[in-house]
């Protein structure tokens, strides 16, 4: 067990990032493996917290639901552009925007000449990954930067071996703020667990509501595996 890592308490509202936190990083977005036992742990922790457990991911809700089936957890998806309240359907948030078609065409055309570079379209954004072609980082960055500067309403987001275009106003703080206004989240102590720079917004929102953030690199010495072990302990406490 990592030192100073608090165990999950029954008065918490838990906000969990997905990639790099619950799931190990994989060579490409569609190659992630959902470890045996993760879904059971999430179900158990959610039951213990009276349903106050959410996923907050840069992924679209369709990806998250496919990975965690049969669970359909509340949370924020696409960096807060889609929000699902407990028991509800996912709906676009106030930050949602549609990526212009010409951008996608432009990115796909460039990627077709850069073997290993992947374009990941999302309902309200797009990511361009260079994990399999690290030598293309500068070119991917330059192209994504041009796209962001040409279209009002989107900002460039540096990610793990990728750059994303995210609507301005979208952030992981938004789902925390929204869910904390709804039962069973409201009145609980929010704890946001993440690994990435985008997760800092969610952690800051948790602090505003009297809670705190846990960072995979700083608080979980074993990385995602340790996060999963912590959840499993929390589910059976
Ligand atoms: O907010 P998250 O749940 O952490 O999602 C952030 C992004 O994760 C995915 O990309 C990252 O993970 C991939 C799989 O391990 C990896 O191949 C890639 O290099 C990483 O950048 C996802 O594809 C993005 O849509 C998410 O925004």
Task: Please give a structural write-up.
The protein is of the alpha/beta class. 33% of the residues lie in helices and 21% in strands. The chain contains eight helices and eleven strands. It is globular, with a radius of gyration of 18 Å. Bound molecules: ligand L263DTV3. The ligand O=P(O)(O)OC[C@H]1O[C@H](O[C@H]2O[C@H](CO)[C@@H](O)[C@H](O)[C@H]2O)[C@H](O)[C@@H](O)[C@@H]1O binds at residues 17-20, 25-29, 32, 57-59, 120, 127, 129, 131, 159-162, 164, 196, 198.
Short description:
Belongs to the trehalose phosphatase family. By secondary structure, this protein is of the alpha/beta class.
- What is the SS-derived class? alpha/beta
The portion of residues forming beta strands comes to 15-25%
- Which regions contain 5 or more consecutive residues with pLDDT less than 50? none
Report the mean per-residue pLDDT as an integer. Answer: 96
Bound compounds: the ligand O=P(O)(O)OC[C@H]1O[C@H](O[C@H]2O[C@H](CO)[C@@H](O)[C@H](O)[C@H]2O)[C@H](O)[C@@H](O)[C@@H]1O
Strands side by side in the biggest sheet? 5-4-3-2-1-10-11
Cofactor: Mg(2+)
Protein name: Trehalose 6-phosphate phosphatase
Pathway: Glycan biosynthesis; trehalose biosynthesis
InterPro entries: HAD-like_sf (IPR036412), HAD-SF_hydro_IIB (IPR006379), HAD_sf (IPR023214), OTSB-like (IPR044651), Trehalose_PPase (IPR003337)
């Amino acid at each position: 067990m990592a030192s100073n890592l608090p165990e999950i308490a029954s008065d918490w509202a838990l906000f969990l990032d997905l990639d790099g936190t619950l799931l190990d990083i994989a060579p490409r977005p569609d190659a992630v493996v959902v470890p045996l036992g993760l879904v059971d742990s999430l179900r158990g922790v959610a039951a213990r917290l009276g349903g106050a457990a959410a996923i907050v991911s840069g992924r679209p809700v369709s990806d998250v639901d496919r990975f965690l089936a049969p669970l359909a957890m509340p949370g924020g998806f696409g960096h807060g552009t889609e929000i699902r309240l407990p028991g509800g359907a996912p709906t676009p948030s106030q930050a949602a925007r549609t990526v212009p078609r010409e951008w996608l065409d432009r990115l796909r055309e460039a990627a077709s000449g850069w073997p290993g570079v992947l374009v990941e379209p999302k309902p309200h954004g797009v990511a361009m990954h260079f994990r399999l072609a690290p030598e293309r980082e500068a070119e991917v960055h330059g192209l994504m930067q041009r796209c962001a500067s040409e279209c009002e309403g989107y900002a460039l987001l540096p990610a793990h071996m990728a750059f994303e275009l995210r609507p301005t106003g979208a952030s992981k703080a938004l789902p925390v703020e929204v869910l904390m206004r709804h039962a069973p989240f409201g009145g609980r102590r929010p704890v946001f667990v993440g690994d990435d720079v985008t997760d800092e917004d969610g952690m800051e929102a948790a602090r505003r509501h009297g809670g705190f953030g846990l960072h995979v690199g700083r608080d979980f010495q074993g990385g995602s595996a340790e996060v999963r072990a912590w959840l499993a302990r929390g589910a059976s406490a």
